[in-house]
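Repro case for the chain-ordering regression, as requested:
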Amino acid sequence: MRAARALAALLGTVLLAACGLQSGGAVPLRVGPAGIGPVPELGGVAITVGSKDFTEQNILGYLIEFALVAAGADVRDLTNIQGSNSLRDAQLHGQIDLAYDYTGTGWINYLGNETPIADEHEQFEALRAADLAAHHMVWTAMAPMNNTYALAVSRRVSEETGVRTLSDYARLVDTDPAAATTCVGTEFNVRQDGYPGMARKYGIDTGKVRKQIVQDAVVYQATADATQCRFGSVAATDGRIPGLDLVLLRDDRAFFPKYNAALVMSADFAEAHPAVAEIMTPISRLLTNETITELNRQVDVEGREPADVARDWMVAQGMVTKG
Amino acid sequence: MTAAVETTARPRGTRPATEGRAEYLRLLVQPVLVLLLTVGVLTWALRRDLTVTQQASLNTSNIVTVTWQHILITATVVVIVVVIAVPLGTLLTRPGYRRLTPIFVGVANVGAAAPAIGLIVLCYLATRTTGFWIGVAPIAFYSLLPVLRNTILGYQQVDPVLIDAGRGQGMSAPTILRRIEFPLAVPYILAGLRTSLVLAVGTATLSFLVSAGGLGILIDTGYKLRDNVTLVVGAVLAVALALLVDWLGALAEQFLGPKGLR
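-- result from build under test --
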């Protein structure tokens, strides 16, 4: 009997603790209001911000967090979640209120379409309509930055071979396959908006390609070394591209899908807090490929903290102060 | 791992009869299970309506290629492990070299304790090359310990009375090693090898990181694309392969051990 009561007490404590538990941690750096000032509607509102587990996503996550802190919200930090799918699940289940995601990822990975839409605005509109209808998720404040797939080459190899565009690359594969060895990540290797689709669009004979499948992170270094892979699949805004002096091949037939960053939240959240999109839209507008690549470079090449990089940029833009 | 080595390392002759029967039953059931798993998962996957993206991974020629790469990696790892660990273990139990044992066992311990993925990445960073051997070498280092440890253990458990008896018959040290010590150590070495084999199959799923291929490609592709069919095919085939090599190891233990102890 006593054991049962002890068990009940223990269970009660555990339940109580579970209710008190909140996911996420505190925002890592302090900021004060500047260009972004306190918004009464957001004062003290608890908002959880998430991101995926790579540099650019961490930076984008911190940009949202600092902006909302300056606006007076009570922000919880859930950045650095492993992989797109986990972030998406966390958003669908309401563990995360807000995150930057990519239009191509939404259209292809989350909604399961195989063919992207070539124009970035049309892609955004199609995705917004479909995701709202299917999952009550709102996409808004699309940024000009487009973190799509690209083939990269070291500057030396580019000058040596004269390959500047994907059409040049296709020609090189055809005439001298040994000079066009290519490293690709597992995902890019099978995606229809990755290598197979690219090969079809540019008329590349996949039987001729000397292709190696490696880990994404290895692709950058191996392409820069240019011994075993002279070309490599990369993400277009990665900071290691300027850091390792790689050149992106121009997608002259506009094959690769658009992966513009945009803000994602549930429809309920968007309705309850319209001020969030209003605050974030001008920030999104400033995020071009040049800007985000430079911020990524400061983290990946100079070894700075993503939170520091994000805050310094916002301070330089006059949005917030170092609180 | 130690527990597994200890339980499997007991020489056959000391086992009670029921355990022997269970072992025989397992020898029969395990290959059937491997067959069921393989056929089951392939039928399940290939009879579905696959998207074009899934077909790029899950076509017969690709599945055969990555499975073959996986087998090749595992087999090479095992050959390297046997070639290094058995002579090394033999040397380290000879008089005069015993003092060195802690050093080598320590190094092998480091290899087994370090995360395999870390070893693979370090190996890539140190050599700046990709390919088969960069995928194989770290896994071989990783799987060295069970065989080395069991080889040493195998020699240590030989009853000194038997060695004395050999000497009494005028055998030289090499003859004692060849005719008494080594045959008696074989069951232990094989038990260690079996553990190594299963470790190698599991960690070979990571060797795709450096372009060595293997079933890890299917697992990683499936995970990244949220394509559970590809992921499950890769994972289940790796499980089937692990069971298969474990079965081969069991067969080897059954038939390669010393005749007198069978």
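Ordering looks correct now. The longest strand of chain A covers residues 74-81.
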